[in-house]
Design a protein that fits this description.
The complex is a heterotrimer.
Chain A: H1 16-20, E1 36-42, E2 48-54, H2 56-59, E3 64-68, E4 78-79, E5 86-87, E6 93-94, E7 100-106, H3 110-118, E8 120-125, H4 132-135, E9 152-160, E10 172-180, E11 192-197, E12 203-207, H5 212-223, E13 230-233, H6 250-258, E14 265-268, H7 271-277, E15 284-292, E16 298-310, H8 316-325, E17 335-344, H9 358-375, H10 380-387, H11 407-415, H12 418-421, H13 423-428, E18 434-446, E19 456-463, E20 469-472, H14 482-494, E21 501-504, H15 522-546, E22 557-560, E23 563-566, E24 571-574, H16 575-581, E25 588-594, H17 607-611, E26 619-631, E27 637-647, H18 654-673, E28 679-680, E29 683-684, E30 704-707, H19 730-742, H20 753-765
Parallel strand pairs in A: 1-14, 12-13, 16-17, 20-21, 27-30
Antiparallel strand pairs in A: 1-7, 2-6, 2-8, 3-7, 4-5, 9-17, 10-15, 11-12, 11-14, 15-16, 18-26, 19-20, 19-25, 22-23, 23-24, 26-27, 28-29
Chain B: E1 2-7, E2 10-15, H1 22-29, E3 48-51, E4 54-57, E5 70-72, H2 85-92, H3 102-115, H4 121-127, H5 139-155
Parallel strand pairs in B: 1-5
Antiparallel strand pairs in B: 1-2, 3-4, 3-5
Chain C: E1 4-5, H1 10-19, E2 24-26, H2 32-38, E3 46-48, E4 58-61, E5 64-68, H3 73-78, H4 80-85, H5 87-93, H6 99-104, H7 107-113, H8 121-126, E6 130-135, E7 138-143, H9 144-147, E8 148-150, E9 153-154, E10 161-168, E11 174-182, E12 190-200, E13 206-214, E14 221-222, H10 224-230, H11 237-250, H12 261-270
Parallel strand pairs in C: 1-3, 2-3
Antiparallel strand pairs in C: 4-5, 5-10, 6-7, 6-10, 8-9, 11-12, 12-13, 13-14
The chains are: A alpha+beta, B alpha+beta, C alpha+beta.
């Protein structure tokens, strides 16, 4: 008999064998017979009116089958949630260089760029904005006529206690400013998909997308097709991280399929096209003033956060909200003033990226904390411990920690670890021409969508005629393993072996709407729904077993792998036999789950910020430690040791848990040390993987991940989402270490070798210790 | 142009443009989509294949170069349900997340273990340093190659 | 559609080239194919050298080390001749790109691409390498510093290929090494690189020093006068700092997306201290 699945064990992921043999088909791997390739012509200017588009010359190229413009779009020609402000094909003006002017259908991928280059566009250049502060000035050009403030997508203030006035009463005060660049998702599979019109006149789209259900609605709206006439499927994504949260290529594919004379179409962004078109993490400017009392208790925080939201709204509003909510980190602060702005510029669109605004905010507060600790001569970990919240406290942004709150346990785990305890000896043992330093950072990540946007998952579970089960996953799997985790959750709930389950990848025709693969909620929400469906199916199976003329009572029956056992007699009925007795409707269980939210939000923010997500209810927590070596000859920072202690509630699968932590930390290290996204007047300069530097296997160390298992009662088996928390802390932990090692702060990320060497040179010129 | 070469153990002959990229020939003409494209410029390793046992980047190879060669792609490593020890180790050690880099990683590991059956972790990291991964942070991939090396030495 | 030809011998190569005088010559393809992807398409045929076995060898011939142009970076790394006598070249080859790129890329290709950042170039300059050029009519020799004219420019006459690289066998008490700074530890174009060749005597005094710099000028740079001032000294921080300061004033770096000129100069001033590690 097969072993039943057990929650809490490192069950190998069920998607791994298909992927490791090359058999699993990603959207990029689909080549429908007779396909036409799709490409776009992107803008030559960051801000310009479109006077005329001449597609004629492109049509002359042999193999080009069609060139479409906005005139060919029958619907609203707008995508973007919630604002719906981004054109599929530009009809008025371009607002960034990735704006699409024309759509090309061609026989081969190679001629798409050639065709794009031949399309003649008449532009009337407009003054452009590349700096968020300048975009807010009174005389700045207006990028979107419909925004309330000058180029401001969203802004808000959180004021508590005496606000800024309390700064004057602080025993010690630090002021710091930070500039954070854009970050590229740089998933290995770029944006891609295929589409075709089927025999019933339904548009079918298969895309590398985090949001198949929402895509369907957006396509309906943008292209003017009834939603019932659209199907969207999401195979495993080759990475997402937020960059595929929403429409990327899907509208281009839909439009192309409507004009391809019945042929299927495919689009697959080259890496360069992905750099030009795709969304980025919001660049940010953070100005912090943080003060404390003589005993080290935080007294006042005043900060100003400006996010460059780029050309279109995308999810800039919710991201701004998260930045505000996380601006005071994990600390109690009675007097707070947080003002924040998400501002349009003609830079690339800023959108969802793992961490979602919390990353930027935590970079600010955590570095300010370290400077304040130095100022009052307090150990940085003790300083944090003194001010960190317990359950029942409010964090500085006014959000009550109602649910599981494990930050102090995370801090404690770091404090008692030899890497921290022995850091001074380690630092003293630095080799010649190297400096060693240790730095910590603590943080949190609000999970889910906040109080106003319903976080709903609908699980659909089927008992198959052969006695196995099919889980109709509703949330896309971009590599985080939520679909494999569904197997583990259902296996535990139904007492079945892992191979009793089949995973159906989300598609709008067969799965049920279950929200986006985002916000660290993919397992939390869907697995909660799945548990409900499992309970329904189990009950149905057991009751049915009673109906089969064997005189059984339900309380005497138990599900086991592949069978139902009548405990008093020890007799087993194979599940296939029970399934055969059931109708199709009986074998299907559907269960809707809505995630809990804060029902009475503190009256701290305007309604727009509330809609954007203030406040969240459930938070994951973490404390990270980075031990670095700074090369005094080259400025290179190398991370020697790294410890991540994370509170994600109960660990469902230690291996999958580690996967997320290790991956997020390394992606965060990239943000900290190498990923210098280069833009000049709205043009992406670092537009390939040779010039946008992400870490290789030689750049990062083995890291230690220790879970802190609180129990999140609302989570499936007590878990919380940890998809994002780990990316938030490498930058501040490493920057804090560098601050100690250099005796000065860089104020800019990433901490490239060049910036560090410059700081070292300044230090030696100013006669500081070296 | 007719190109004749050995692919995953079988002799094949295919008519292809001589300047067709090998990654496209494998994926589109032969349906072997296990080798991926992540950059098209030799910067990510997702397109790695073995050419006469040596790892090379198929996005930087032309069809004509296949003539007479012995090519192994990720599809050639497993037999039915049975995985190559390297692949099995990746599965067991949690080295596969989104999986898009994984075939290339396996090819890089194959190349390493042929040259050095008993590598240290630093040598493993060096051997994988031409394969970018955005999901795993590399650690479990190194764990998997280390475990596979042990398995393969034990079997040898 | 482009024609792609793979001659199996030099004779075949000369014949094909006569037929297709405009053909592009490809060694490992790791530079050429990347450039072709980025630029406008043309349909010139490609002549691939990979099947010409006589271009692939490493020999020690009396007082010379001879490396065939199609020798891969991996082969340079694996060669006991290189490791024993001119380790800087093997160290440099080990830092090119990535393992797969090292299997594909070649000595000759690295030279003829003549990137200011080419990893194998500084060691070749420090080791006083010569290149042997061959054509249908015959061959000639050139010093590497004469052969490489500027970024992407080499002195190849029409119909010629680079056939071999010839490196004089250094004395037994010589040491050589290569240091590279890139934006990360692999898959990195050099921002500043230093190849050092030294003859050290029994008292640990420098008898002869030749230091060559990459990525800090249009081609590899050497400063014989600064090298000469190292003669007669022992390796010490002050001696190396003095050399570094001098060299940093003499290099001609540019600012580009990878690094500023100022940073490159600072690296030149500092890198010589690596020799103390």
């Amino acid at each position: 008999m097969r072993e039943p699945v057990v929650i809490g064990t490192s069950l190998p992921r069920s998607d791994a064998p298909g992927k490791i043999t090359g058999k699993e088909k990603y959207a990029a791997d689909l080549y429908p017979e007779g396909l036409l390739w799709v490409g776009i012509k992107t803008s030559d200017y960051a801000h310009a009116l479109i006077k005329h588009i001449d597609t004629g010359p492109a049509l002359q190229i042999p193999g080009v089958r069609a060139v479409l413009t906005c005139r060919d779009v029958k619907g609203s020609n707008r995508v973007g949630v919630p604002e719906g402000d981004q054109p599929v094909l530009v009809d008025d003006k371009v607002r960034y260089r990735g704006d699409a002017l024309a759509l090309i259908l061609a026989e081969s991928r190679e001629i798409l760029q050639e065709a794009a280059d031949l399309i003649k566009v008449e532009y009337e250049e407009l003054p452009a904005l590349f700096d968020a502060e300048q975009a807010m000035l009174p005389d700045a050009p207006v990028l979107h006529e419909k925004r309330a403030g000058k180029n401001i997508l969203l802004s808000g203030v959180i004021e508590r206690g005496e606000g800024r006035a309390a700064l004057a009463a602080c025993y010690a005060l630090v002021e710091a400013e930070f500039e954070l660049p854009a970050q590229e998702h740089a998933y290995l599979e770029t944006e891609t998909g295929v589409a075709w019109m089927d025999e019933e006149g339904v548009l079918e789209v298969v895309a590398s997308t985090q949001t198949p259900f929402r895509d369907r609605m957006e396509l309906a709206h943008a292209l003017g097709i009834a939603p019932e006439k659209i199907k969207v499927a999401a195979p495993y994504l080759g990475g997402g991280f937020g960059g595929k949260d929403g429409i990327t290529v899907q509208a281009y594919l839909g439009l192309a399929a409507l004009h391809s004379q019945g042929r299927p179409v495919k689009m697959w962004n080259t890496r360069e096209a992905s750099f030009i078109s795709s969304t980025k993490r919001h660049p940010a400017r953070l100005q912090y003033r943080l003060g404390c009392r003589a005993d080290g208790i935080l007294h006042a925080l005043s900060c100003r956060i400006v996010l460059d939201t780029g050309a279109y709204a995308h999810l800039g509003g919710p991201i701004l909200e998260m930045a505000m909510e996380h601006a005071a980190g994990v600390y109690r602060v009675d007097h707070v003033y947080i003002e924040a702005y998400a501002v349009h510029t003609n830079n690339p669109v800023s959108g969802a990226f793992r961490g979602f605004g919390a990353t930027q905010a935590l970079a600010g507060i955590e570095q300010a904390m370290d400077r304040l600790a130095v100022k009052i001569g307090m150990d940085p970990l003790e300083f944090r411990m003194k001010n960190a919240v317990d359950r029942g406290d409010e964090i500085g942004s006014g959000v009550l920690m109602r649910n599981s709150t494990g930050i102090k346990a995370c801090l404690q785990k770091v404090r008692e670890h030899p890497l921290w305890a022995a850091r001074r000896e380690w630092e003293k043992a630095a080799p010649p021409f190297k400096r060693r330093a240790a730095g910590v950072a603590a943080g949190l990540q609000g999970t889910g969508y906040g109080p106003m946007i319903a976080d709903i998952a609908n699980a659909k579970l089927e008992l198959l005629p052969d006695g196995r089960f099919r889980i109709y996953c509703g949330v896309a799997d971009m590599g985080q393993g939520n679909n494999a985790t569904n197997v583990q959750v259902a296996g535990e709930a139904l007492k079945q072996a892992a191979d009793a389950f089949e995973i159906w990848q989300p598609d709008t025709a067969n799965s049920l709407p279950s929200g986006s693969a985002a916000a660290s909620r993919t397992t939390f929400s869907y697995a909660n729904a799945l548990l409900g469906a499992c309970r329904m199916i189990e009950e149905r199976i057991l009751i049915r077993s009673c109906n089969m003329g064997l005189g059984y009572h339900q309380e005497d029956l138990m599900l086991l792998p592949g069978r139902v056992r009548h405990l008093p007699s020890g007799k087993d009925i194979p599940l296939a036999v029970i399934a055969a007795a059931m109708t199709e409707a009986e074998r299907l269980a559907v269960y809707a789950y809505k995630a809990p939210v804060v029902d009475k939000a503190p009256a701290l923010v305007n309604s727009a910020i509330q809609v954007a997500g203030f406040p969240h209810l459930i938070f994951s927590f973490a404390c990270h430690l980075a031990r670095i070596e700074i090369d005094e000859l080259t400025g290179e920072i190398s991370v020697c040791d790294y410890l991540a202690c994370t509170d994600g509630g109960k660990v469902l699968n230690p291996q999958v848990y580690e996967q997320q932590i290790q991956g997020g930390v390394v992606q965060g290290m990239g943000y900290a040390l190498w990923e210098d996204f280069r833009l000049h007047k709205g043009e992406v300069l670092s537009k390939n993987l040779a010039t946008y530097i992400i870490p290789t296997s030689l750049d990062t160390p083995d890291l230690i991940s220790l879970p802190v298992e609180t129990l999140e009662a609302s989570g499936p088996f007590g878990m919380k989402g940890i998809g994002e928390i780990s990316i938030n802390l490498p930058l501040p932990a490493i920057a804090n270490a560098a601050y100690r090692g250099l005796g000065r702060s860089l104020g800019t990320a990433p901490l490239t070798a060049e910036r560090v060497l410059l700081a070292l040179r300044e230090e030696s010129e100013e006669g500081c210790l070296c | 142009m007719l190109v004749r070469f050995k692919l995953n153990g079988r002799e094949i002959e295919i008519d292809a443009r001589p300047d067709r990229r090998v990654v496209d020939l494998l994926r589109e003409d032969l349906g072997l989509t296990g080798s991926k494209e992540g950059c098209g410029a030799g910067e990510c390793g997702a397109c790695s294949i073995l050419v006469d046992g040596v790892s090379k980047l198929s996005c930087l190879m032309l069809a004509a170069q296949l003539e007479g060669r012995t090519i192994t792609t990720v599809e050639g490593l497993s037999a039915g349900e049975e995985l190559h020890p390297i692949q099995q180790a990746f599965v067991n050690r949690g080295a596969v997340q989104c999986g898009f880099c994984s075939p290339g990683m396996v090819i890089a590991a194959m190349d390493l273990l042929q040259r050095n059956p008993n590598p240290e972790r630093g040598e493993i990291r060096r051997a994988l340093s031409g394969n970018l991964c955005r999901c795993t942070g590399y650690q479990k991939i190194v764990d998997a190659v280390e475990a596979a090396a042990g398995e393969m030495r034990a079997e040898a | 559609m482009r024609q792609v030809m793979l001659p199996a011998s030099l004779e075949e190569l000369w014949a094909l080239r006569k037929e297709h005088p405009d053909a592009l010559v490809m060694a490992g393809g790791t530079d050429l194919l990347v450039r072709m992807r980025a630029t406008k398409k043309d349909l010139r045929p490609v002549l691939v050298l990979e099947r010409i076995e006589e271009l692939r060898h490493i020999e020690l011939n009396g007082s010379e080390i001879i490396v065939g142009a199609m020798t891969s970076h991996q082969q340079l790394m694996d060669s006991s001749i290189i490791t024993r006598h001119i380790p800087a070249l093997g160290q440099a080859a080990a830092m090119v790109g990535s393992p797969a790129i090292r299997h594909m890329g070649t000595m000759g290709g690295n030279i003829c691409t003549a990137s200011p950042a080419g990893d194998t170039l500084p060691p070749l300059y420090a080791l006083q390498a010569q290149v042997a050029l061959a054509g249908p009519e015959g061959g000639r020799m050139a010093a590497i510093e004469e052969f490489i004219r500027g970024p992407g420019q080499v002195d190849l006459k029409p119909g010629e290929i680079l056939k071999q690289v010839i490196i004089p066998l250094p004395g037994k008490t010589s040491v050589s090494s290569y240091f590279k700074v890139g934006q990360r530890q692999a898959l990195a174009i050099s921002i500043c690189s230093m190849a050092v060749f030294m003859q050290i005597n029994q008292g640990r005094y420098i008898e002869e020093a030749r230091i060559a710099w990459g990525s800090v000028g249009p081609t590899v740079m050497r400063f014989p006068e600064a090298d000469a001032r190292l003669q007669g000294s022992q390796l010490s921080a002050s001696v190396l700092r003095e050399y570094g300061e001098a060299a940093s004033r003499l290099v001609a770096p540019l600012s580009d997306i990878r690094a500023s000129a100022g940073y490159r100069r600072m690296l030149v001033a500092n890198l010589p201290l690596r020799l103390l590690a």
